[in-house]
């Protein structure tokens, strides 16, 4: 690979390694995983895919959504980022004794400090970061993480973030190969921290689904946000300390319902999110700076087997023609 084709640097003020990729229409800038200098070194999210800028047609689709930054904070990460969970816990946590390790896919082996329920928003001590390989090219970056963990859990996890030629589309292609002795049962979701030209979440914001959603909780739903048919809307602009959280139901068992749009009329942009596996669960969370559908998929990988799944993100301007939800890709 010619170095002139891609900018890979640690020249930002915080000295975090980064890469820039482009297909001529869309440009993405990503922080790269690094256990010492990485922008994100928490233990909640997969380290691969910290996208701090995603630009198309002069519009910004990503960027900081949080007020303060610490590399060890559980959610100090940007862009469409992903977390693996086994129920409300993590692989090997239940059987690990205090002081022993358990597995965070995409992160490493981390230490269980005491006998208490797993805390998703806690940053645990990393005792084995595994082996990482990062290959940046002109229009894509491929990340590979190999880990041999305790209790028979071991994997090779690969993620490729690519910008498709001639399209305003970014894909995130995953594969998880089980090289251990125990089945890997997990759910993975994408938090989708989109920031559309830094426009506030409010009446200009809408989230549209390819099914008839129903909210199962009421933290802000019905007051700060409303479901109107297949659309979630905000009657007024969210204040800095306000948030909305709900789990949504109503989707079926086919991938066609993994089809969601987030739009902001003030920014004049939208993003269409599609997955090639059925939804297992769907959470929605929003604050003033970002509106986040969080779609989950379920994975079970037997020893010696491998599973693959892909997400597709289409960036668009609201005054441009686009396909209706559910249309052929």
Largest sheet: 10 strands, antiparallel
Rg calculated over all Cα atoms: 19 Å
Counted by DSSP, the helix tally is 0
Which secondary-structure class do the elements indicate? mainly beta
Into how many domains do the coordinates divide?
1
* Total beta-strand segments: 24
Contiguous low-pLDDT stretches (5 residues minimum) are 1-13
Strand line-up of the largest beta sheet: 10-11-12-13-24-21-20-15-18-17
Please give the CATH class.
Answer: Mainly Beta
CATH architecture: Distorted Sandwich
* Element pattern in H and E: EEEEEEEEEEEEEEEEEEEEEEEE
Proportion of residues in extended strands: 35-45%
| N→C terminal distance | 31 Å
CATH topology: Beta-galactosidase, Chain A, domain 5
What characteristic shape results from the CA principal axes? globular
Question: What is the helical fraction, as a range of percent?
Answer: under 10%
- Provide mean pLDDT, rounded: 93
Describe it for me?
The structure is a single chain. By secondary structure, the chain is an all-beta fold. It has a single domain (1-83, 164-329), classed as Beta-galactosidase, Chain A, domain 5, CATH 2.70.98. It contains no helices and 24 strands. The protein has strands at 7-9, 18-22, 26-31, 50-56, 59-60, 82-85, 101-104, 108-111, 126-128, 131-136, 140-148, 154-163, 169-178, 184-190, 205-209, 214-215, 226-228, 231-233, 244-249, 259-264, 269-275, 281-287, 290-301, 306-317. The strands form four sheets. It has a ten-stranded antiparallel β-sheet with strand order 10-11-12-13-24-21-20-15-18-17, with no helix packed on it. Strand 4 and strand 5 form a beta hairpin. It is globular and about 50 Å long. It starts with 6 loop residues before the first strand and ends in a 12-residue tail after the last strand. The model is unreliable at 1-13 (pLDDT under 50).
